[in-house]
Amino acid sequence: MEGYLNNGKTVDINWWMAQVKLGVEDRNRRTKANLWPVYAQYYRNEFERDKYPKNMFFVLARTIVPKVYYRNPKISIVPKQPGPEHAAFSTILERVDNILIDSMGLKEEMKKMVNSSFFQSMGVLKLLFGAEYTPTPIAGFTAPPVNKRGQRPEYRPGILQNMPYAKNIPLEEFVLAEGIRDVASSFFQAHLITRYWDDLENDSRFPEFKKYAKVPSGVSPVSEKDELGRVNHSRRRVELVEIRDRRTRKVILLAPDVMPLNTPLLFSDDELQTSFSSPFYTYVPNIDSEHPYGVADADILLTAQEQLNDIKTKLHQHARLSIVKWMSEDGALSEPEAVKLLSEDIGAVIQVARNKKLTLIESHHIPESLLKQEQEIMEDMRELIGFSRNSMAQFQARSHGPTATEVNAVNQAAELRIDERRDLIADNLVSLFKDIHQVIFRHWTQEQVVKLTGSDGAPIWVSFTGRMLQEGSYDIMIEPDSSVPETREVREARAARLYGDLRQDPNVDPRKLTAYRLHETPGVAMDDLMLVQEAPAGGNVIPLQDFANRQAVGQ
Fold first, then answer.
1. CB count, 10 Å around CB of 511?
2. How far, rounded to the nearest angstrom, does the alpha carbon of residue 162 sit from its chain's CA centroid?
3. Beta-sheet pairing, 266-269 with 250-254
4. How far apart are CA 52 and CA 313, in angstroms?
5. What is the rounded CA–CA span in Å between residue 71 and residue 68?
6. pTM value?
7. Sign of the alpha-carbon torsion through 278, 263, 257, 12
């Protein structure tokens, strides 16, 4: 098989680096990567000095991101098989997933992914387990290593031992095979990683680096002085290439510039790959039928932003020309009186020479056509993104304002494309947690404990292992939250209405309903008002099977 030597026992590094290079060139050409710095400069308001812009890049990016990413994502797990045991499995797994959402900082990484897609057309999440730079879970290495002196080659917060973690990676670090139409067609996926040299030297997961790595000939060591002559404190970096081969389900870690030929840092089976997925999850809001990267929102807006900048600059120039000027006859004003004329003092008395005249001159007007062009371009930009105000999202101009029908049409049209983007986020979350389940089933060999609520409403703690949960089969659903923030008053009113509607329903647990009502009431300490339930006999922690039995008999 191409990419390997000695019947698949050795990695052909030159072949793989050629494939990565082709993938990078293909990605850069299709995504217009040469314009990425321009998009970033516009977002940061770094325009040419002679321009007077209206920064719609920033406005639209900051409007899209909070509308699309899930502020409070929740996972629902439904058992595929009947019976109290499978129901118990689902209850525990659902609780675990929702705890992981918080512990993984998933909301922040989703926000970064959506933001990246605005400029680079594709956002990418990567699944990790136990450590940032462990390509696949290795026995004994489900946590970042620490040497005898207590030094850590990894220091990213939030990544815990034996726990999954999702991280956003920018598109310039993500590579697919060249010439493909969709991500699923790529026979490999690669992550371009930069690490500090001394961190990698002290990393016990990759002993080959310390043993064999050499600075390439012709590359001078880090200079003692920088280009300005100051002391240079920069640390030497190493470029790594992490490759996941979908054909063999192998993971390969290369340092091609510093390691001997065909000597990878890691060549192993990849536990993060399955028959239906790999640990990369892509978000492409604007698909393209010819390649997997899609079209960036920034690319669609670029021409309109530059046109808008030109118009705003011309408006500024016309505004300067239209400043009111005074024409006076020679000798009509002394110099001190002329200063009074131009001052901002109210009611100043100005003395004018006898029989001399002052004439007010307004030499220029701002053209109405420029103001109309500005509004037209802004409406074009909103329509391109999905925030239009015409028949897709604009009220008809009339003196009495929009009708209720128009308001509904505008709201539906404006939310249609946003909902499509949110669906893509939800699909990625489902795929991510399906893979997380497979990993924790294999690696949570030690007993875990999670807090649940029993059928009688009492809090209980249930012990389990990953292998126990593996016996069940599940459907995963994402509960979407509204893109419009809800106030405390809105949530309280909804809880009161629901409590009134359901409190007489014999199919509804009255204790849970009351707990929900109190939770949404400001100023109420739920723990003080709810009756204390007895803890389960035999202690606070019960085995998973006991929990299933209790749920079955309604205890």
1. 16
2. 24
3. antiparallel
4. 5
5. 9
6. 0.81
7. negative
The conformational region for residue 505 under phi > 0 = left, psi -120 to 50 = alpha, else beta, is: beta
Contact 168, 127 (CB under 8 A): no
Task: Tell me how long the chain is.
Answer: 555
Nearest to 326 by CA among 348, 343, 341: 341
pLDDT tens-place values along the chain, 555 residues long: 899 999 889 999 999 999 999 999 999 999 999 999 999 999 999 998 888 889 999 999 998 998 888 877 888 888 888 887 888 888 889 889 988 998 888 999 999 999 999 999 999 999 999 899 999 987 656 788 888 888 888 888 888 888 999 999 999 999 999 999 999 999 999 999 999 999 999 898 899 999 999 876 555 555 555 555 555 567 889 999 999 999 999 999 999 999 988 899 999 999 999 888 899 999 999 999 999 999 999 999 999 999 999 999 888 887 776 666 666 677 777 777 777 666 656 556 666 666 566 666 565 677 888 889 888 898 888 888 877 554 333 444 555 556 666 656 655 666 778 888 989 999 999 999 999 999 999 888 888 888 776 666 667 788 888 888 888 888 888 776 544 556 667 778 888 899 899 888 888 878 778 877 877 776 655 545 556 555 555 456 777 777 777 766 554
User: What's the CA gap between 480 and 74, in Å, rounded?
Assistant: 7
Token pair 């939800």 is found at 426
Q: Are 214 and 154 in contact, with CB atoms under 8 Å apart?
A: no
- What are the C-alpha distances in Å from 130 to residues 127, 161, 186? 10, 5, 27
Distance (Å, whole) CA 141 – CA 332 = 90
Two tokens at 79? 């058992």
DSSP 472-503: S-EEEEEE---SSPPPHHHHHHHHHHHHHHHT
Question: HSE on the CB side for 373, CA within 13 Å?
Answer: 17
Q: Are 101 and 107 in contact (CB under 8 A)?
A: yes
